[in-house]
Amino acid sequence: MKEKNLHPKNKFNKGYDFDALIKINPKLKPFVAKSQFDVITIDFSNPEAVKELNKALLFSYDKISIWDFPKQNLCPPIPGRLDYIHYLNDLISSEEKITVLDIGTGATCIYPLLGVAEYNWNFVASDIDFESLDTAQDIIDDNKLREQIELRQQSDENNILKGILKDGDSFSAVMCNPPFFKSAEEAQGANKRKNKNLGNNTIRNFSGNNNELWYVGGEKAFLHNYLYESSLYKTQSTWFTSLVSKKENIKSLEKSSAKLGAVEFKVIPMSQGNKVTRIACWRF
Hints:
Number of helices: 9
CATH architecture: 3-Layer(aba) Sandwich
Strand order of the largest sheet: 5-4-3-6-7-9-8
Number of domains: 1
Order of helices and strands: HEEHHEHEHEEHHHEHEE
Oligomer: single chain
Largest sheet: 7 strands, mixed
Number of strands: 9
Shape: globular
Helix content: 25-40%
Strand content: 15-25%
CATH class: Alpha Beta
CATH superfamily: Vaccinia Virus protein VP39
Radius of gyration: 19 Å
């Protein structure tokens, strides 16, 4: 199955070799079968199948051999997450030594893992949830990546960069995959719609802790809070970036960035199959 519209450097842009992936992760084998269209694939409505597939994709990197996390945490789709890393590299590749700050890294620590595996970057990664950070630290330790990935806990849910950035920190970029629902109820409603479309009753494939899925005021409120705080630390990162799922949030973000003194604002379009998103990037 070929993934459409992925970054040219994305190693999964020509589809999946399931025979090779089963060798990498034998636990994937029971989930691989021919579809009704005579195509070798997995049932993407099955959360266990999705998790074992993404493990296989991640383990295709020499630096990563262990990756496990609780069922209540979101399982990130590796190809799409890798695209953010590649587009970020297009933005900052001219810098000699690259260190990236990942806001809201989650239990899977996926962006730091991919950034280290693909480009050998260094990372500081933050999250508000202690249990997620505890799981992420286990993954870092199991893969012997402690020297390249440092975790920091955000103790105040009202802050994004405050309390995380320290004097002397200097980053090539800040990256973020923000929560986009306004409430737990809105997130649960979206889960039900997705499950109905897939024709099944499972919720785990679209599960997630509150901090992964929703933020008071939704994506727009989060982005504007992040933008404002970035103006307070404008010299500590060359670029500030974020995924933006709702296109209508871009215009107000760009307008506010200009008011806060940003000297450049750009939008990088990004798509995977039918899903269209974008990366907003600004610098001071």
